[in-house]
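Throughout our pipeline, every protein is held as a single compact record rather than as scattered files. Nothing more is needed to write down the fold, since each code stands for a local backbone conformation. For reference, a complete record is included directly beneath this paragraph.
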Amino acid sequence: MDIAKFIVQLQNCSKKEFKTILKGFDIKLSDKELDGVHPLLQEISLSWLVLGVPVSIQQKLIQLLGEQRATALYKEIIEKAPSSFR
């Protein structure tokens, strides 16, 4: 699947589908974390691949998860992402 299609899939997925996607990448979020992160999927953009995740989104994640958990989750995602997504 190309990255643009994957982003559209993320933007349109239900919480249950998002949880399944995360499971496929072996990334675990608690139900509370999932409830907070899922709405942010609407803001994902292809430009993030070039420009990085906007500071406003980073701040929202830190508010939702705490700085330590947000940083750990980001590192985990980077490590587990397919090379075509990095």
User: Anything to note?
Assistant: The helical segments are 3-12, 15-24, 31-37, 48-51, 55-65, 67-80. The mean pLDDT is 90.
